[in-house]
Design a protein that fits this description.
heterodimer, A: 112 residues, mainly beta, five-stranded antiparallel β-sheet, 0% helix, 54% strand, B: mainly beta, seven-stranded mixed β-sheet, four-stranded antiparallel β-sheet
């Protein structure tokens, strides 16, 4: 089992819809979770981080964390074509402070 | 605030040749990371520095890869000799500390093609 798993996609949604991106992780000791967006040919840029169970909202983005189920998700409301990118889930592994393990990424395509 | 700077942005070399990548982290960031990202995959950590000390190099192929971070600021990653399978994007990232809650900020990366 991979340490961090994401649906590889591609995920295609119409403009204005909600895009839901999912991520599971294997290390129960993980404490922090990050979502990065990566446009084609560019480097990853941070969208959100979450540490506590529940929801965290920032504009059109909502991160959800369920440590019991070892599951983290990212919801994008009112999806725009400019949201088309690969979304990377990253998990800070257990007590190895600063060591991020990335999933393989989910490619999102928002169709006008 | 300036971001993480990397050079070169692109590099094409023939196999068995050496290559070096340079990184300048965000000012004040003590922790520096080198990642490798293969096509269609997420970044994978190669080495992590806390100031000038390498605190995690378990995934660095030490037979051909080396890295240094003199004076705890800039860092260089070297491959010698390069192999075809080394073709990838090499990303440098930095964070203020290595604590679990710190955000890592990525540079633009160096795209390496080994022919």
């Amino acid at each position: 089992q991979k340490e961090v798993e994401q649906n590889s996609g591609p995920l295609s949604v119409p403009e204005g819809a909600i895009a839901s991106l999912n991520c599971t992780y294997s290390d129960r000791g993980s404490q922090s979770f990050f979502w990065y967006r990566q446009y084609s040919g560019k480097s990853p840029e941070l969208i959100m981080f979450i540490y506590s169970n529940g929801d965290k909202e920032d504009g059109r983005f909502t991160a959800q964390l369920n440590k019991a189920s070892q599951y983290v998700s990212l919801l994008i409301r009112d999806s725009q074509p400019s949201d088309s990118a690969t979304y990377l889930c990253a998990v800070n592994v257990g007590n190895q402070g600063g060591k991020l393990i990335f999933g393989q990424g989910t490619e999102l395509s928002v169709k006008p | 605030e300036a971001g993480v700077v990397q050079s070169p942005r692109y590099k094409i070399i023939e196999k068995k040749q050496p290559v070096a990548f340079w990184c300048n982290p965000i000012s004040g960031h003590n922790t520096l990371y080198w990642y490798r990202q293969n096509l269609g995959q997420g970044p994978e950590l190669l080495i992590r520095y806390e100031n000038e000390e390498a605190v995690d190099d378990s995934q660095l192929p030490k037979d051909r890869f080396s890295a240094e971070r003199l004076k705890g600021v800039d860092s260089t990653l070297k491959i010698q000799p390069a192999e075809l399978g080394d073709s990838a994007v090499y990303l440098c990232a930095s964070s203020r500390t290595r604590r679990w809650e710190e955000t890592q900020y990525f540079g633009p990366g160096t795209r390496l093609l080994v022919l």
